[in-house]
Design brief:
2 copies of one chain form a homodimer. With 876 residues, chain A is α/β, with parallel strands linked by helices. The first copy, chain A, is 46% helix and 17% strand. Chain A contains 34 helices and 33 strands. In chain A, the strands form 7 sheets. Chain A has an 8-stranded mixed beta sheet with strand order 14-24-23-16-17-18-19-15. The first copy, chain A, has an 8-stranded parallel barrel with strand order 26-27-28-29-30-31-32-33, surrounded by 6 helices. A 5-stranded antiparallel beta sheet of chain A has the order 1-2-7-5-6, sandwiched between helices. The longest helix of chain A is centred in the C-terminal third of the chain and has 25 residues. At the A-B interface, helix 25, helix 27, helix 28, helix 30 and helix 32 of A face helix 25, helix 27, helix 28, helix 30 and helix 32 of B.
Chain lengths: 876, 876
Amino acid sequence: MTVTETRVKSVYFFGGNQTEGKANMRNTIGGKGANLAEMSLLEIPVPPGFTIETKECARFYENNKSISEETRHQIDLNIQKVEEMQGKKFGDNDNPLLMSVRSGARVSMPGMMDTILNLGLNDDAVEGLSKQSNSPRFAWDSYRRFIQMFCNVVLGVSHSGFEDILENKKQEKGYTLDTDLTVEDLKDIVNQYKSFVSSKGKSFPQDPKEQLLMSIGAVFQSWEADRAKVYRRINGIPHHWGTAVNVQAMVFGNLGEDSGTGVAFTRNPSTGENVFYGEYLVNAQGEDVVAGIRTPEPIKKLDQQMPAIYSELVDIYKKLENHFKDMQDLEFTIENKKLYILQTRVGKRTAASAIKIAVDMVDENLIDKREAVLRVKPDQINQLLHPTIDKSFKPNVLAKGLPASPGAAVGKIVLTADKAEEMKAKNEQVILVRQETSPEDIGGMHAAEGILTAKGGMTSHAAVVARGMGKCCIAGCSDINILKGKVEINGEEFNEGDFITLNGTSGEVIKGQAPLSKPELTGDYQKIMQWSDEFRKINVRTNAETIQEVKTALEFGAEGIGLCRTEHMFFDETRIKLVRQMILSESTQDRESVLDKLFTPQKNDFKEIFQAMDGLPITIRLLDPPLHEFLPHDNESISDIAQTQGISVEKVNKTIENLKELNPMLGHRGCRLGITYPEIYKMQVKAIIESAVEVQKEGKTVLPEIMVPLISGDKEFKNIKKLIQETAQNILTKHQIKLEYQIGTMIEIPRAALLADKIAEEAEFFSFGTNDLTQMVYGLSRDDSGAFLPEYVEKEVFPEDPFQVLDQDGVGELMKIAFNKGKQTNPNLKVGICGEHGGEPSSVEFCVKIGFDYVSCSPFRVPIARLAAAHQAIKG
Amino acid sequence: MTVTETRVKSVYFFGGNQTEGKANMRNTIGGKGANLAEMSLLEIPVPPGFTIETKECARFYENNKSISEETRHQIDLNIQKVEEMQGKKFGDNDNPLLMSVRSGARVSMPGMMDTILNLGLNDDAVEGLSKQSNSPRFAWDSYRRFIQMFCNVVLGVSHSGFEDILENKKQEKGYTLDTDLTVEDLKDIVNQYKSFVSSKGKSFPQDPKEQLLMSIGAVFQSWEADRAKVYRRINGIPHHWGTAVNVQAMVFGNLGEDSGTGVAFTRNPSTGENVFYGEYLVNAQGEDVVAGIRTPEPIKKLDQQMPAIYSELVDIYKKLENHFKDMQDLEFTIENKKLYILQTRVGKRTAASAIKIAVDMVDENLIDKREAVLRVKPDQINQLLHPTIDKSFKPNVLAKGLPASPGAAVGKIVLTADKAEEMKAKNEQVILVRQETSPEDIGGMHAAEGILTAKGGMTSHAAVVARGMGKCCIAGCSDINILKGKVEINGEEFNEGDFITLNGTSGEVIKGQAPLSKPELTGDYQKIMQWSDEFRKINVRTNAETIQEVKTALEFGAEGIGLCRTEHMFFDETRIKLVRQMILSESTQDRESVLDKLFTPQKNDFKEIFQAMDGLPITIRLLDPPLHEFLPHDNESISDIAQTQGISVEKVNKTIENLKELNPMLGHRGCRLGITYPEIYKMQVKAIIESAVEVQKEGKTVLPEIMVPLISGDKEFKNIKKLIQETAQNILTKHQIKLEYQIGTMIEIPRAALLADKIAEEAEFFSFGTNDLTQMVYGLSRDDSGAFLPEYVEKEVFPEDPFQVLDQDGVGELMKIAFNKGKQTNPNLKVGICGEHGGEPSSVEFCVKIGFDYVSCSPFRVPIARLAAAHQAIKG
């Protein structure tokens, strides 16, 4: 190939003083390449090499999967530079230059191509390496490994054939260990390897240039591998970014006792402690460390074995951390007493460690508070709030369900709520396993460590109640089959009393007892949260209806209640009977007299909450679910209620039948109940206002916000508003007292969003109910979406489950329309969100961007929301 | 009261040459007042009087229900004018002026106040009237009637007390008729009336001025009466319009044989024939005509009895019709040989008459074609297309259901589809009565004259199929209870074979055989439709899937098919078995092999339609409903399919159970099926393209538009579009043929509307599926809304049922957003509507206004849509 003028630079050299890249060129040359260049600039010893830019990846596909001529030319020039710098020559049989080839996207991305090592070895160079290393055994073993690696990764020949050849040789010779193989054995194996590859119709190339170009192509192709695509989807990495390729001179840690290799973190990635942390192996290559055949030594020991090297390494790690101002994860190799740093990158860390490092680095003046807050990922916080399964534990996963409520739990299987309570009383830890849960199971759910259901989705009764309790829950696990006194999990039978473990964060059902780590909220955590609050511009409220939930949420920093669902209060064992009686009432009068009995308990619910929330706003939603949700479905409860009511079982069944709906999600619920049965809403408003008056008289500040659900237009809202105002005014006049209360509405029906300007003329606040809004905007039932949503996400028709991450394009667009229309007619309108998305970081950031006043989420997500809101405020 | 300067004119005089109003002042002085003034200007003899303007109605309510001082003053001045003109005096006991008081809004509005006649009578004036009329009996009877009328209408005293007094007197005297009462009897009755009123704490005022002001107040109050409000709601009349009040000198038709009264139409209101049409009574007042005690004479006879008067009346009617250029409805009175016209207004007419009059008037050069088209109301057209119950018939209404498909039908009750076919074969007319219908009933539905179901809504199977067939249907009639071999309708028992009549336009179920009028489409009808088409700017297509429907729609002038639902084709008896087999398939391969069998029949469906529609576009929607809709629910069919498939009944039941959905409307349907089971859509596309190719080869023009249902975003659409294109291309390449086909989507999910810009980049057309869109925008299930929607409409929370009349504020707003976004990225985008609203006049007009290319509706609504579109085009 003739040398032509370079038109567009696509290859960047690194090493010594000829380095062409730098840290901020990550988009061009990928994270690994940028860091290698930056280290060279910092005069840190890095084996020289070059990076092919990320854009070449797209060109590769455009060029029918071939590297462009221009880039091939630049690769040639760079190889020459490396050869000169190392004083070695590619394919030389005296002093061969060997190279490694690695992928390197903008962000670190597992699932991409494995590293190819020892590239450049061929029938000549293996002799050169023998001389150079003074170890023919090492040279031939390296050659053997290279052929296997190259043929597998680049040519797609499966490992097993190579393994068979190796094993046969060992058996033939009676060896047990690979290290028993002699040079002659290895030479024979190499020959067998080559024939094997030929037999597969492939050919192992002897030309190092050809080896290199093929390897580079393999890296580009690995960008489109399934596992890489999946990773990108999960992590929101755009496909068009592409990967860079790093080609670097090999250094060997396995040339004797003066050589070695290791990995190290500049701080402890598990605890965050500011100590140099890592491990190494003398006379070994990186793969030996990974293989786990020999046990590595802790990094401290290197100080004794090679004090000069250790001291150099310490200087380097400090330099790197000071330079990058973050905890680094290093790979190093010592070749004949010379230290090389092969890689540095920001180290992955646990939530606890992230927090400690962030706070410590502020104390050390390395970063400021803003940066510290950004260093802790909102999603990570979850780890701190719930028990987790020890990372060291290898779980035997029996089945997978929906990760309905995070955390982990260990306990004995129980199949009824009663049994759960009974065993809890004996201090036994239990996991409640049910087809699905119902309000009657609340006691058992409280008693259990975790809940596992066969049916129901992320917002089923089990899921919602468990999240409120901060209790681990796996829902909709279709692989479980509940039988009499036992349960089949994925075909395996378990009896009541057998141990299982739930991982509510991943949805995994695990056999036996896994060791758990308890959550711990440190002072550093408090500091991060406090700093977050300094930056955060919107309020974070909670969705809570029991006093336990309210208290938990306050501890987690909730600044109000954004959603108090009154229907859950109706599910209490004694009240549910009254509620059913009310539903079966034949006249408004009968209904009113039952409602009178529900009034006092309802009032007491509110009093307790008002007292706890002194001075903080509380949004109370009037009754929302369709009445049939309160009716029993088992014969026993039906005949029970028939007896209580003094009516026939037939009549109860007929009422249940009449109330059934084809599409209950779009049925007779929310304010539609308030329009047709105003007496129900009147009782609730009376309970709210009476309790507020009583608590206010105790000297506390009560800020109730009465929220009307399922509004579809202004007239509906006006109708209910009038009812609320009249009911409230009667009470306030009677007590001759003033009370600040607001009336507002959920925005959860698309029509309400479209008519937001008219509704805002009457409403004092909007709260986006994004669960229902998502269902209606997508025309997608949460409960039924399981049949196809996973396939949709897999086929990338939907980027993710819109019930977990707010759909900003569609649902978000409608929210913006509603927000703008609402503010247009009522600039004082208070706006928040109370759907599940109120605790999901990207959704929280979206709400901040639009200009919401608050987000509201379940108690255990409050810290996540606080942090996410701070992130958005800092990032602007 | 002192006379002050007139500041704002609020009272307008009419009569002789002093008339102050005119015809175009309808908004100021109401329709009746404007016409009275106009008649005076035309020198038509009108008893003088004055009109209090409509604005006074609002002032009346602002002024705490009292007439403003200024208006009272102007009333005084106008009374003086009337007194002068008539030479009579209010309350005079020689020559008293008597007045009538009537309401008169901008548009004629039943439900408002009854007329008060003879106002001005008191203890003195009754003597004056005795002298004047020369009939004390007449005078005292008038006084008696006035007291009763005034006290009832103005003071709110119930009629029955007055009737009792009258009846007692007659019994006491042994009279049978009112006319037997003597003057003395009447004087006594008047006294008893007065005491009775006093006993109710009210007082009958003797002062004529007081009588007048109270009567005017009563007219204003009747504006807010419930029945007036209901009428306004139904007819879309704004509440703020208010009513005017007309006060007019009384004239008497009952002063002897030289007097009389009558009503007349300038043309026959029932047939439209251009003849003077009406009736009169000699020596009578208007109320005698209404009471029906004496039989009026046809108007022609007046020519013999009073030729001069008749000739004057003919001149007047011709003058009026020429002046108003429309058929008029007149009231006249002859007082002692003098003719007075009391009222003229545009006459109400039947659809047939409306058409004939409009066409005739164009021939007579009275109006132009535009005006003629506007004279026929789109809704009215329905009368012409379906049989109707004779207006003269008084039906015995047994129950009321939903008016699911218009028209009327008479037949013998049958309770099974088989029985219907069996009896039809014997030439018997039958009405099929079912709990609800299913695809198996199609044969019976065809055989029946009409269909009555106990369950299901306006879009249930029965309703949709019946509308397609143009067959009368009443759905969801909850008052029917189907028993073995008989049916209870509202408690009354009927056997199979008993006659009933259905009125599908009103939803009434009628006992026995009502006489029906057959529809007839005249040449005049064709003319009006042809003129409509000249003005109309958008196309009208039809929703049709059977060849019968297609042919009917073409006869009604459809210009294409806007919605061909392929699922109905699957319900055929032999095919449904294959469909079920497909659903029960365990692998894609099994499914494909069953689909292969469905391919040929499906292809033949399309061929037949393509042949019939030669040159017209046909939108074919790919499979839409969730699969469970095709599965059987009765044990017999289940065991049948289990046997055919060679699997267990248990397995079939399990599949049915698994496919069940909590909210099927938001479930696994539409393109979601196409994503998860691409083989189904592939078969359908293959059938469409193969049949199109075959018909094109026959020399016909085929314009298929393939429509993807339930799209929620651009990625989903791209996915299915690719499948369609690949499948189509394969076939076209194989045949080496070109075919013009388009690919587009339903817009029926709110998210699709919000992402319309992105979708339009890929789609060639949008068709708004406003049925589903309404459900999702409102969060309202059509099937479940029956529980509260009627109450919503009644309480005016919703102005009307949004499934019948498009909700322009919410759904319409979203349609505008989608239309604009779609056109923004694809200016060539073709846009239409295929929901039920496509045939509802106000919704059609809305679609024209936005700028749609077409509307599509069921075949029998095509003429309605054509006319409505023309109306919008003319009105601009």
